[in-house]
Amino acid sequence: MASFSLPPINDNPDGGWGPSSSNLPAQFKFKDIPYAPYSKSDKLGRFADWNDISGDNRQNVGVASAQATARGSGPGNRGRRDGQQAFGSGTASAFAYFHAEDESSFSLVDTKTNAARRGGPLGRGRGAGRGGAASRGGGQRGGRGGFTGGRGGNNAQRGGRRGWRDWEKNNRARESSVAISPDWSMLEEVEFHRLAKLRLEVDEPEDLDSYGRLFAYEKSYDRITTKTEKPLQLVDRIKYNTTTSDDPVIQELASRDTATVYTTDVILSVLMCAPRSVYPWDIVIVREGNKLFFDKRDGGPFDTVTVNENAADPPQDATTVNPNNPNEKVAVPETPSINTATSLSLEATYINQNFGFQSVIETPPPPPVDFAKPNPFYGPDETEPLASCGYRYRVFDLGITEDEDVRICVRTEVDAYTPGQGNPRAGQGLVTIRALNEFDSRALGAGGAPDWRAKLDSQRGAVVATEMKNNSCKLAKWTVQSVLAGAELLKIGFISRVNPRDNTRHVILSTTSTRPMDFAAQLNVSLANGWGIVRTVTDMCMKQPEGKYVLVKDPNKPVIRLYAVPMNAFTGEDEDDEGAFDGEEPDSAVA
């Protein structure tokens, strides 16, 4: 009969559980074993699992685990089914055994099925809990519905909702605002995320002089509702948008060495709000001695107003395929559609100009207010009446230290004054007037905007919030222009088409009034950040020798680049009209 002997038992004299460390061989004393971090919130699994997971049982457990994953149950779910993996079992362990030479012992274990990860056939509807039922409200919340995600893998994983930076992934490439010549040399390149970190506190400006004539704002426009809408009229007035170098007042101030940098509020606001911009733009910079002149090109992006620039799916211009190169798409110069980016921009410009002309009182009382000097751009041979506009030339100190002399002279504009709010000549009661426009809430590029006629009176906050999202850059520029001009109020009109299919007739649905600094806080506009960007660009240009330069915003990336260009660049363009806007209504086929 065979004998049976018990194996040696290493008793723990300390009374603890398990063998004593003094009785263990050297290779089992956990030497050089890395520390495995844990948290109090970690859940412990089973100490031992006696279930047989070999063969058919392993397949059954895997199916149960996949079903539990598809139902949304997980380690943190109290309703965990049997077979669901314990907490942390799928993570890498410092105590795992690896055999370097035996590749057959290595296997990739992935218990997540494709249906759970990608959503399966119904993934667009379920959307991982974020899009909800094919984003049933997607058409009303900024997307084009559930099947928007079906056009791209990334969007499908989001359940049909477009992400907040999806405008950077737009498949349709935009063209640059200015043709980059191969003769130009790129000097600097700055990303927007670097610009967003800049900051410079600037004191109150110094007023140099004021020009022009202001009319009083018509307060009855503040009482307009969707039920008492007022038609937008075509008002024949002249308003100038002359560039910096052609301004005779700035030329005189520069001859007296009044400042280091000279520009206008329109150009400066684009630079101060650059991190918000999506569409391309360019600024022509001329250095003469120790002076910098920031100019715009006539007919460039500074002469028009953008529409839904910051929307998740902004309006696009129609494109076609180049027959010589099927992979290349070129823009169609003329299109009958009235909802393209170019058509909407012209329409918005027409609306802004005429709303400002219409919403002032030209017949006393109250009387118009003349500034210290007349309009510097209105010649004696002009016959058409001038629009209500006042120019205030102001100097801001951009010096970081007291010994540093970096000053910027800005031509700012105000559109009207509020009667009874003080002396407008002293900067009291000044008003800037702008207009937001609705084209078609169901059209592509509408950005999920609600129907203004249905929501503007009862849910104005929702309408304003949508416009703040879709037109963040435009509203920020308007606010900065009002702050630079020292305006006390910013009037914003809500103007819609009479018929969504006709872009030639419009009605005023409502008007809102806000203080520029308060609106800047709502928009999260940091003036200190804007001044930091201006000072950085100034330092970049002052490091260069005398000459002409162009600051270009990349059409498809959040980047600005500084190019050195010949002195005769942009001189062949038509500059006869000097940027005057005659207030004519846009052609229906173009605008």
Automatic annotation (TrEMBL):
GO BP annotation list: cap-dependent translational initiation; formation of cytoplasmic translation initiation complex
Compositionally biased spans, kind Gly residues: 120-153
Basic and acidic residues compositional bias, start-end: 163-172
Keyword Zinc-finger: no
Keywords: Cytoplasm, Initiation factor, Protein biosynthesis, RNA-binding
Cited InterPro entries: eIF3d (IPR007783)
Residue ranges, annotated region (Disordered): 1-23, 57-87, 115-172, 311-330
Residue ranges, compositional bias (Polar residues): 57-70, 317-327
A GO cellular component annotation in the UniProt record: eukaryotic 48S preinitiation complex
Pfam families assigned: eIF-3_zeta
Chain spans, region RNA gate: 301-315
Subcellular location: Cytoplasm
Record GO terms (molecular function): mRNA cap binding; translation initiation factor activity
Subunit relationships: Component of the eukaryotic translation initiation factor 3 (eIF-3) complex.
Family (UniProt): Belongs to the eIF-3 subunit D family.
Role of this protein: mRNA cap-binding component of the eukaryotic translation initiation factor 3 (eIF-3) complex, which is involved in protein synthesis of a specialized repertoire of mRNAs and, together with other initiation factors, stimulates binding of mRNA and methionyl-tRNAi to the 40S ribosome. The eIF-3 complex specifically targets and initiates translation of a subset of mRNAs involved in cell proliferation. In the eIF-3 complex, eif3d specifically recognizes and binds the 7-methylguanosine cap of a subset of mRNAs.
Domain notes: The RNA gate region regulates mRNA cap recognition to prevent promiscuous mRNA-binding before assembly of eif3d into the full eukaryotic translation initiation factor 3 (eIF-3) complex.
Protein name: Eukaryotic translation initiation factor 3 subunit D
Organism of origin: Fibroporia radiculosa
